[in-house]
Amino acid sequence: MPPKVPSRTPSPFRILSEAPAERPRLPEWFRVRHQLGSDYEQVRKLVSDRNLNTVCQEANCPNIRECWQHRTATFMILGDICTRACTFCDVIKGRPQGVDRTEPARVADAAAELGLRYVVVTSVDRDDLEDGGAEIFAATIRALRAQIPHVEVEVLIPDFQGKQGALETVLAAAPDVLNHNLETVPRLYPTVRRGAKYGQSLELLRRVRALKPDMTTKSGLMVGLGERVSELAGTMKEIRAAGCDLLTIGQYLAPSAHHHPVIQFYHPRTFERLARYGKALGFRNVFSGPLVRSSYHAFEQHA
User: Fold this and answer.
1) How many CA atoms lie within 13 A of 165 on its CB side?
2) 257 pLDDT exceeds 90?
3) Hey, which of 46, 109, 138, 146 would disulfide with 173, CB 3.0 to 4.6 Å?
4) CB-based contact 160:200 (threshold 8 Å)
5) Would you kindly state where each structural domain of the chain is located, as residue ranges?
């Protein structure tokens, strides 16, 4: 059964009363500088030499320098071309090529060479495939387990368009964490998350809980897209009611002038209030901050 959201949770209007007042100009707290060393270069070379994709590069993640310098990366499987055109995302949109069956083994080899014990795997949307790419997710999980003893695997999966059996295929490979991001509030789906349906994404989380009650589930939200406080609070409640254990909340940053604009920047104090509100709802852990992304410090959140 899905968990009950506590009936007496603090008012979101009180917790989030300090609505972001910044104009859409990059605030000082985003100007993070990291020196690049040998570990960053090794990860960059390894990814290039093995012809692998990472969401760090393809999504233009602001944390790439920090993560690669700490020898962590989020592998992106099923190519680098997405079949959808979400207006927040910097991944290339178009018609993908065929499926590379050697990719799972190459991901496992790279993770082993990096000495990873916690691996995050995500993908582009592959609506052109009968199973949405679910079997390649499962094969990657199996390859990682075969290559690295005691590895923990988190998969950040698409909605597979609700295709029959796709979620079950991934769950059968027994990932340690099943992550599916809702990204934003329902009202903004038609403009921000084109090709996706809010109800379908929420239902995916419910199905994970029904099929694998002990599976750790996770989701993520972006803020600053134009959502209202009441909408954000309501979405957090619905994610928790669907049985989700972990939640990430981060500031949306527009990759270019052609993407969905940043409507507002949230202050770090507001992110702290969001984390407290999420904990009050019953989430086991909430990572909330300007630079938080769904796979940022993923091992710490799962621990």
Assistant:
1) 4
2) no
3) 138
4) no
5) 1-30+181-209+218-303, 32-175
Helix (H) or strand (E) holding 199: helix 198-211
Whole-number Å distance between alpha carbons of 143 and 162: 25
- Its pTM stands at 0.85
Q: Which of 296, 295, 281 is nearest to 179 (CA)?
A: 295
Stretch 8-37: mean pLDDT, rounded? 58
**Neighbouring residues of 205: CB distance < 8 A, sequence distance ≥ 6:** 180, 217, 219, 239, 242, 243, 244
Q: How far is CA 264 from the centre of its chain?
A: 21
Q: Which residue's structure tokens are 């082993």?
A: 112
Q: What is the CATH number that goes with domain 1-30+181-209+218-303?
A: 3.30.750
Tell me the C-alpha distance between 73 and 138, whole Å.
19
Tokens of 47: 């990814």
Digit-coded pLDDT (tens) for 51-71:
777 655 545 556 556 655 555
